[in-house]
Specification:
The protein has 251 residues and is an alpha/beta fold. The protein has one domain: Decaprenyl diphosphate synthase-like (Undecaprenyl pyrophosphate synthetase, 3-Layer(aba) Sandwich). It contains 8 helices and 6 strands, in the order H-E-H-H-E-H-E-H-E-H-H-E-E-H. A 6-stranded parallel sheet has the order 3-4-2-1-5-6, with helices on both faces. The relative contact order is 0.20. Bound molecules: 3-methylbut-3-enyl trihydrogen diphosphate (2 copies) and magnesium ion. One 3-methylbut-3-enyl trihydrogen diphosphate binds next to strand 2.
Length: 251
């Protein structure tokens, strides 16, 4: 089946109505815009790359905490299609870090039974990273406690345009262009919508992340800079989510 088309991630099933009724308040899908690495480093008089390095430690902590909390899908925004605009030295540093950590994640994914999945376009990414992404996806394909979606070279508008193109390529007629048909062709195909969208570092914007999937997400913005966002901070966000009343347009 071509990449991005419908596939079942095989995580533990649960009853969506049960959750909506408020009886189970752990979000099924948590997405995080990991922002503030540069400012974290600047506050210490360090180079920005040090903030990115510390940010990867936060990723490991949050992976642990999310799996322990029973979250089924965790989507982390690591590099956007707009981040190519950054100075080439920073982009190269980020790619090098990414490559190193894609390899280092494996023991953690094994230990916790976490499946890895890339969100974004492989096109334009260094070949080494493309290979590492494939290999991590393949190695962890059988794990089912949680899916860790890492957004690298991800842009939501690009994702939606690609999905629309795929609909045309698949020969869909106008009446077949449904929400389900489009959702099945997004990089997140087979993944439930985002329940909780977290952004660190206090910025009040979505920066082209999961625009379609976050249509009814609860927002949680914290001033905490990403390298300082760890298990306790995630649990605080989950507690805030548990107190929200979701109406989905109803009353
Ligand atoms: C987020 O931190 C990481 C990436 C976007 C790669 P930033 O690098 O955006 O940090 P700030 O926003 O400049 O502090
Ligand atoms: C969003 O952060 C992208 C990622 C976290 C990967 P940015 O720092 O790039 O977002 P803007 O530029 O402040 O919107
Ligand atoms: Mg930023």
């Amino acid at each position: 089946m071509p990449f991005g088309h419908t596939r079942d991630f095989g995580t533990k099933r649960f009853d969506a109505r049960f959750r909506r009724g408020g009886l189970v308040s752990v979000p099924n899908h948590v997405a995080i815009i990991m922002d503030g690495n540069g400012r974290w480093a600047a506050q210490r008089g360090w180079a920005r790359i040090k903030g990115h390095k510390e940010g990867v430690r936060a990723v490991e902590d949050v992976l642990d905490a999310a799996a322990d909390a029973g979250i089924q899908h965790l989507s982390l925004y690591a590099f956007s299609t707009e981040n190519w605009k950054r100075p080439s030295l920073e982009v190269a540093g980020l790619m090098a870090l990414l490559r190193m950590y894609l390899r280092m994640f494996l023991p953690k994914l094994r230990e916790k039974g976490i499946r890895f999945h890339h969100l974004g376009s492989l096109e334009g990414l260094p070949e080494g990273i493309q290979r590492d992404i494939h290999s991590l996806e393949e190695t962890t394909a059988g794990y089912s406690n949680m899916v860790f979606h890492l957004a690298v070279n991800y842009g939501s508008r690009l994702e939606i345009v690609q999905a629309a193109r795929r609909c045309l390529e698949d020969g869909l007629r106008a009446e077949e262009m449904t929400e389900d048909a489009i959702a099945a062709r997004l990089w997140t195909a087979g993944t439930p919508d985002v329940d909780l969208l977290i952004r660190t570092s206090g910025e009040l914007r979505i920066s082209n992340f999961l625009l379609w999937q976050a249509a009814y997400a609860e927002f949680y913005i914290t001033d905490c800079l990403w390298p300082d966002f760890r298990g306790p901070e995630l649990r605080e966000a989950l507690a805030a989510f548990a107190s929200r009343e979701r109406r989905f347009g109803g009353i």
